[in-house]
Design brief:
262 residues, alpha/beta, 2-enoyl-CoA Hydratase, Chain A, domain 1, three-stranded mixed sheet, 15% strand
Length: 262
């Protein structure tokens, strides 16, 4: 089974994370497949707009901790993995095709970062969101260190990243992290409706608009991604991080122990 599916209809390409048995947790195959699907959509003249979503009960539960040993087997493999994750964010945020996020279930870690990377994100109110990286000894990626302070303010961004505060889709909308919070049953239909509106707009002006507004708003995101990448590789390779991830992956630490500020 492919870890990512891509379907084009009427100029709308729907890219779906497809590891529903593990809440679309990210492994090396998913990163490769997702990057290819997004890059293909961005390069395809028939694709006018993309929808990014997840199969099953979640959008994305973050990194697959069971694959952690393979990821960190060497500095080269770790660097390759982190680079692949950052390239996904670049395809979403810094290319010219508009990307609509249709988010439900779980949006955790890199999954939450990808949701924020989307141009217009529609999130189920019941979606559970948080960034567990710091508690695990890992650095955030996806340009979050540049984008989050602009969206929610510097102090709140530090809180979200440092303490891994948990929140739902309704709070995500209140914080300005997503465009709309909706009932889960309506998320995909609203994403399609939005995509159809965008698909009817002049292609060149939409591409120019996204390029200019995102580059202006995120003028420092490339620098942030480079710095994040270096930090992520260094953190992933530390013994403390590897011990924490191993405990969580084997159930010796429960995800619920990573408490959030109220």
């Amino acid at each position: 089974m492919t870890t990512v599916t891509s379907h084009l209809e009427d100029g709308i390409r729907t890219v779906t994370l497809n590891r529903p048995e593990c809440l679309n947790a990210i492994n090396a195959d998913l990163l490769t497949d997702l990057h290819r699907a997004l890059a293909a959509g961005n390069a395809d003249p028939e694709t006018r707009v993309m929808i990014l979503t997840g199969a099953g009960r979640a959008f994305c539960a973050g990194y697959d901790l069971k694959a952690f040993a393979d990821i960190t087997s060497s500095r080269e493999s770790t660097s390759s993995y982190v680079h692949a994750a950052q390239e996904v964010s670049r395809e979403i945020a810094l290319n010219e095709k508009m990307v609509i996020g249709a988010i439900h279930g779980w949006a955790v870690g890199a999954g939450l970062e990808w949701a924020i990377n989307c141009d217009l994100t529609i999130m189920a109110r019941s979606t559970r969101c948080f960034m567990p990286e710091i508690a695990l000894g890992i650095a955030v990626t996806g340009g979050a260190t540049a984008v989050l302070p602009k969206l929610v303010g510097l102090q709140r961004a530090k809180e979200l990243i440092l303490f891994g505060e948990r929140f739902d889709g309704g709070i995500a909308q209140d914080l300005g992290l997503v465009w709309k919070a909706s009932p889960e049953s309506e998320v995909m239909s609203q994403a399609l409706q939005t995509a159809k509106r965008i698909a009817k707009l002049p292609r060149k002006s939409v591409a120019a608009f996204k390029r200019v507004i995102n580059r202006s708003f995120q003028h420092d995101v490339e620098t942030a991604m480079d710095l994040e990448g270096e930090a992520a590789v260094d953190c992933l390779l530390t013994p403390e991080t590897q011990a924490r991830v191993k405990k969580l992956a084997t159930g010796k630490i429960q995800v619920r122990e990573f408490r959030m500020a109220g």
